[in-house]
Amino acid sequence: MAQSYVMIGGEGPLSYAKNSSYQGGVVDVAKPIIEEAIKQKLDINELCSNGLMNNFWIADFGCSTGHNSFLAMQMITRAIGENFQSIRSVSQIPDFYVFFNDQVTNDFNTLFRSLPPERHYRAIGLPGDYHRCLLPKASLHFAYSSWALHWLSQVPKAVEDPNSPAWNKGRVHYSGARQEVVDAYSSQYAKDMGAFLEARAQELVSGGLMALVFPGAIPTSVENPNTSYSDVPSETALIGSCLMDMAKKGRVSQAKIDSFNFPIYFTFPEELKAVIERTGSYNIERIETLDNPGKHTLTNANARASFYRAAFEGLLIDHFGCEIIDELFDRYAHKLEASPAVLHPDNDKSVMIFVLLKRI
């Protein structure tokens, strides 16, 4: 399944490159937070304690075709360089190497064709699943990921099993589903996020930093902060309703819908904190929610539909075939026209989670 997770490549009108302004808005909002974190938390003397540092390794996990990643890498390398210059005992800035990671089927050709000519780092492709180790042990100094860690490695098996209490018949996501479905997704997320953190713990040097930004959710119950999901983004449920409408017209089979679920999960800060603490490899330097920083970048229903199509088309084609995709997203855009998120962006309750970790 992971092979279908890649975004639409190239630079055409439906590509991720042309439909990721929301993610770019997230980078803009996170920029001052990450710059401050590098200035305050990246201990250059600690990193240089074993001698002069000639090379500084950075990795972006889940970079897609790179357009938003380039903005982040420019900001990160500049901030780290300024941090080196501020330390009098360090006579020179190291050479920066940036590893751009995504699935092996990601469009790395577009990424490397689009690299900024004026950059202060050497770029290296790093294809592979980020739930496992991809770099040598204790080699990475700064890890980064934006808009990637809400993807699961797979749909929870119980959700697709007709004999399981968590079978999600008639739905394509856990939004609005029974608690058994929610619990299955939560359990899969804890497993996958734990694997990601364990892999990075192997790769990061002691004192290395990791900055993560990804869509999450906020609890509506103080008493049960990890079990209240009413604010989970519902766009996936709206796609499900479009599929159900098409099933009624015979355009797609009900069985196909019953066997499909989106492999994405929107965690809560407290839930994430618990997963991080279980690894025992990091200090949590900062964790907070950003109030939907890209909400004004999707100005109409068609733009919002194209945004989700760029992310989900490969996954949907893999399961339903390519014949229904245009109709599905036409219906989706039509339904979005009446969506509060489109009509009144300021009322959109979705959030982004920012977390800064330091390798112990």
Automatic annotation (TrEMBL):
InterPro entries for the chain: MeTrfase_7, MeTrfase_capping, SAM-dependent_MTases_sf
Pfam families cross-referenced by the UniProt entry: Methyltransf_7 (PF03492)
Superkingdom of the organism of origin: Eukaryota
Transmembrane domains' residue ranges: none
Gene3D superfamilies assigned: Methyltransferase, alpha-helical capping domain, Vaccinia Virus protein VP39
MF (Gene Ontology): metal ion binding; methyltransferase activity
GO biological process terms on file: methylation
UniProt keywords, alphabetically: Magnesium, Metal-binding, Methyltransferase, Transferase
Family recorded in the similarity comment: Belongs to the methyltransferase superfamily. Type-7 methyltransferase family.
Name of this protein: Loganic acid O-methyltransferase
Organism, scientific name: Sesamum alatum
